[in-house]
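Q: Sequence in, structure out?
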Amino acid sequence: HLVAAAFGSAGERCLAISAAIAVGDAGDHLVDVVAEKARAVKVGPGRDPESEMGPIVTAAARDRIVSLIGSGAEQGAELTVDGRGLRVPGHEDGFFVGPTVIDRVTRDMDVYREEIFGPVLSVVRADSVDEAIALINANPYGNGTAIFTSSGEAARRFQRGVRVGMIGINVPIPVPMA
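A: Exactly. Output:
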């Protein structure tokens, strides 16, 4: 089972998944697949049609994201894909951070407790769906969440157990879009 949680403050629209909770032995495969996809993302200027991801909005926002990535590593998480230090040719002074995957994140780490607002996925490991539900319900930013599973029982338990605004089952979070 994979539980994806988009944590955002109340009243804010959180369109990106900021944490994935891998249940049981799903974590290693998940991290391998996501890391491969993250490394393939073409980062560049927002006006370049070849770019799949543009720069961060300000230098201060970039520096905050980079700092949180660093604190995750310092606090014991594994940087599977590290987007810090990314340079885009011709835009060396741009505010770029590449996709980042941080594995084995725990609830006490800054990278989990703080809203990052950047291209960072924190992967938390859980032994059971119930433990994943408890993690989601304990997070103060629970805006939306989704579960990807082939188990009807896990899907029902998840749907009834999580306390968030939006829930997806085998679909991304159902965020209303213009």
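Residues 72 and 110 are 7 Å apart (CA to CA).
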